[in-house]
């Protein structure tokens, strides 16, 4: 979750209460540029890393949003310590503009996203996100909706293959789906350890001694099921559009993603909303006014995604795949009823 500008008292590897090391915090805060009197949103509160970094950078107010009730409960002690400068709200960031409006705090000066699963969700076996610990197949970031067990035991083989292929980018998706459906025919798959072994058997282990950098064969399938269970890509699309509506002119958006599907979605959104789209040939007829894109709502702060520094990637393995994109809100009205820039 977040980091501070070069002149901040936070060091690049600042560890916050509870041993939490926010990913790319310095770069995120450099993008947000927190200012005294500003109002900021940590849209993925988690352990409060970005929120704490913003609060330490300026005499400002921060709202922390999270769909996980456990994250909100953990953050209560932090709100008390910040003496009225931090406020928490439970909810999905796809509706962040409504959450802020209901509390009378929109528009805001900056919004930060730290996408994907949080450390507590990964590290608690009962949440069922990781195969490092055997636990119930849950994977829900919130407390509602179907679990991962529901998905692997109830969906058709073809649907499972599509999920594993599209969200996990697993080349052996069909083989994985077939192995899952065969295994559940004997008994329901209820534990992370069970599913991991089924997938490993289908994908196969690398020949010879595994190298330290090689990922577990079950990694891509677990990622795919988690993304599907939580509708993470749909939620990201809604969250970016909500941030566009909630930011004031000159407000900053900073998004840290951890896999290519997320980063691609953020890149496409910012390219479209900044007007960076392919231009028609000069020989093409003038477009119909109804097909023209609205005025750009964002100015991209840096064209290429930023990666974590080498020292951070070395000391914090979870930071290695992180990518940061950021943009500044223009004064143009938010796009209405547009999907990827088209009505």
Automatic annotation (TrEMBL):
It catalyses: cytidine(1402) in 16S rRNA + S-adenosyl-L-methionine = N(4)-methylcytidine(1402) in 16S rRNA + S-adenosyl-L-homocysteine + H(+). Residues 283-294, 308-317 have a biased composition (Basic and acidic residues). Residues 272-343 are annotated as: Disordered. GO terms for biological process: rRNA base methylation. Keywords: Cytoplasm, Methyltransferase, rRNA processing, S-adenosyl-L-methionine, Transferase. InterPro entries: RsmH, SAM-dep_MeTrfase_MraW_recog, SAM-dependent_MTases_sf. GO terms for cellular component: cytoplasm. HAMAP family: 16SrRNA_methyltr_H. This is Ribosomal RNA small subunit methyltransferase H. It comes from Rhodovibrio salinarum. The lineage of its organism: Bacteria, Pseudomonadati, Pseudomonadota, Alphaproteobacteria, Rhodospirillales.
């Amino acid at each position: 979750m977040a980091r501070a500008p070069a002149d901040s008292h936070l060091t690049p590897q600042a560890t916050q209460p509870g041993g939490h090391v926010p990913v790319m915090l310095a770069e995120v805060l450099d993008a947000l540029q927190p200012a005294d009197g500003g109002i900021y949103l940590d849209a993925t509160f988690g352990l409060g890393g970005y929120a704490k970094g913003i609060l330490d950078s300026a005499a400002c107010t921060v709202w922390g949003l999270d769909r996980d009730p456990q994250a909100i409960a953990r953050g209560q002690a932090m709100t008390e310590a910040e003496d009225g400068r931090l406020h928490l709200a439970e909810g999905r960031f796809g509706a962040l503009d409504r959450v802020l409006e209901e509390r009378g705090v929109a528009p805001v000066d900056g919004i930060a996203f730290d996408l994907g699963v949080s450390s507590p969700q990964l590290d608690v076996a009962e949440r069922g996100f990781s195969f490092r610990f055997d636990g119930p197949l849950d994977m829900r970031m919130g407390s509602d909706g179907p679990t991962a067990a529901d998905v692997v035991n109830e969906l058709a083989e073809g649907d499972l293959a599509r999920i594993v292929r599209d969200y996990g980018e697993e080349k052996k998706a069909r083989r994985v789906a077939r192995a899952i459906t065969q295994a559940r025919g004997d008994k329901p798959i209820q534990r992370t350890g069970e599913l991991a072994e089924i997938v490993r058997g289908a994908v196969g282990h690398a020949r010879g001694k595994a190298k330290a950098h090689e990922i577990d064969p079950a990694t891509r399938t677990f990622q795919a099921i988690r993304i599907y269970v939580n509708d993470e890509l749909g939620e990201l699309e809604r969250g970016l559009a909500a941030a566009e509506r909630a930011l004031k002119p000159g407000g900053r958006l900073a998004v840290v993603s951890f896999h290519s599907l997320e980063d691609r979605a953020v890149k496409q959104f910012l390219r479209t909303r900044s007007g960076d789209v392919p231009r028609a040939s000069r020989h093409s007829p003038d477009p119909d006014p109804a097909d023209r894109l609205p005025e750009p709502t964002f100015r991209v702060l840096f064209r290429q995604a930023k990666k974590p520094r080498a020292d951070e990637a070395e000391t914090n393995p979870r930071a290695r795949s992180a990518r940061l994109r950021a943009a500044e809100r223009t004064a143009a009205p938010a796009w209405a009823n547009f999907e990827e820039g088209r009505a």
